[in-house]
Amino acid sequence: MLENLQRLIQLTIHLIVNKLVPLTHPWGWAFIKALIVVSLIMLAVTFVTLAERKLIGRMQIRHGPMRTGWHGILQPIADGIKLLCKECITPAEADKWVFLMAPIVSIAFAFVPLAVIPFAKTFFITDINIGLLFILAVSSVGFLGNIMAGWSSASKYSFLGSLRALALMISFEVPMVMSMVGVVVFTGSLSMVTIVESQAHWGWFILSQPMAFVIYVLCGIAETQRTPFDMMEDEGSLVCGFFTEYSGMRFALFSLAEYINMFLVAILATVLFLGGWQPPFVSWPLFGFLNAVPSVFWFSAKLLLFMFLYIWLRGTLPRVRYDQLMYLCWKILMPLALLNLMLTALFLASKMNILIFYLLNLLVVVIWLSIYAKTQAWVSANNQ
To answer: Mind giving me the DSSP string for 331-368?
Structure first.
């Protein structure tokens, strides 16, 4: 029996490598690159969970995991073994097929957008001319897993959590996409590689699109269900959100999908606003020596910096109320996103100096925040 199983595995590997995706064919290299990307992302997610627990522990004046391995370094492996050994329970009243498919949908559509991400100057699985549109379309489908989980669990807590997930996705997706449009207007392309390469000419878009960057960061944190915007997992009122009834590896798949989506948001921030694989001051001849550093190092450094921001916010900020979250989305972020798009179009149409455009962006942000602060003070005074 074991010999037959081993023979079957060998034949399958031989068929995949030599017949379906031979290395001499472009699809063969794409297959190998996909395996590398998935393996590295899985490894990164594993140890980001450990880094999160250790860093938050330090912020709260404690050590975090310390018992499993040297300074707790094997804790993610222990957690994985524990989840593998736990029983996967299906509620008696649940819609079983939808209940089982929900975590698979979430994890599958979390991985797919990575296919068009340029991780280094010469390393990406594929480059298509609608790369950014592809990412937005596919990542939105992943939210169906959350809706499926809440609806099929036959639990009011899970159902309310999935409804919150749907409301947050619809709400914050709009200003997030609007913040990306300014970058697309600058580059004139939806290709992820072209967007990175164009920042060698324009400079990092975080300088010319500061409002868009802030809007994107806030929307990304909300859509990945992270503190202070983790309303769909509000354990104080919803127990654990849409995956309350999940256990074992099914629960682990939802958690893994959440961290992969965090990486995707951080990767998009790196590509769209932080120059991707390019070093700082890429257009300045004085800093040309930075080009000697491998491009994957710069990409990884920016990515990890953004992941630290996620952890930092979780360790320092309290959860906001649901009405405050909706107010932030529709009355602050959405008008700012439209205003940023108008300024970007005005800049390209008038061909004004880029430094003047930077200052104009900062001036508009200051004016907007001043108006908002005075409005809030006036509302508070009238309520009293």
So the answer is: IIIHHHHHHHHHHHHHHHHHT--HHHHHHHHHHHHHHH
Look at residues 41, 67, 37, 38 and name the one whose alpha carbon lies nearest to residue 54. 67
Coil, strand or helix: which one is 281? coil
The pair of three-digit structure tokens given for residue 156, joined into one six-digit string: 């009011």
384 part of a folded domain: no
Boundary of a domain, candidates 63, 85, 107? 85
pLDDT along the chain (384 residues), means of 10: 53 53 61 86 90 91 89 90 88 89 92 92 87 91 87 85 83 92 91 91 85 92 85 62 84 90 94 91 76 88 92 87 85 88 85 78 78 70 65
Q: Which helix (H) or strand (E) holds 26?
A: helix 26-59
Confirm if 234 and 314 have CB atoms less than 8 A apart: no
Q: Which residue has the tokens 């921030």?
A: 269
Q: Structural domain of residue 318, as residue ranges? A: 93-351
Note whether 26 and 132 are same-domain residues: no
Work out how many domains the chain is built from and give that number: 2
| Nearest C-alpha neighbor of 136 from the set 100, 176, 163 | 176
Number of H helices, E strands in the chain: 16, 0
Give the C-alpha separation, 272 to 217, whole Å.
Answer: 12
Residue 320 gets which letter from DSSP? P
Q: Please give the distance of CA 271 from its chain centroid, rounded to a whole number.
A: 12
**Residues 67, 161: one domain?**
no
Task: Tell how far CA 204 is from the center of its chain.
Answer: 20
Q: Are residues 230 and 343 in the same domain?
A: yes
For residues 248-276, one letter each, b for 16 or more C-beta atoms within 10 angstroms of the residue's C-beta and e for the rest, the string is: eebbbbbbbbbbbbbbbbbbbbbbbbbbb
98-101 LR contacts (CB < 8 Å, sep 24+): 98/148, 98/151, 98/152, 99/148, 99/149, 99/152, 99/153, 99/245, 100/250, 101/148
The confidence score (pLDDT) of residue 2 equals 46
CA-to-CA distance for 274 and 280, rounded, in angstroms? 9
Q: With CA atoms as reference, report the closest residue to 344 among 204, 175, 187, 127.
A: 187
Instruction: State the virtual CA torsion across 22, 27, 31, 37 in degrees, nearest 10.
Output: 140
The sign of the torsion formed by the CA atoms of 106, 297, 269, 319 equals positive
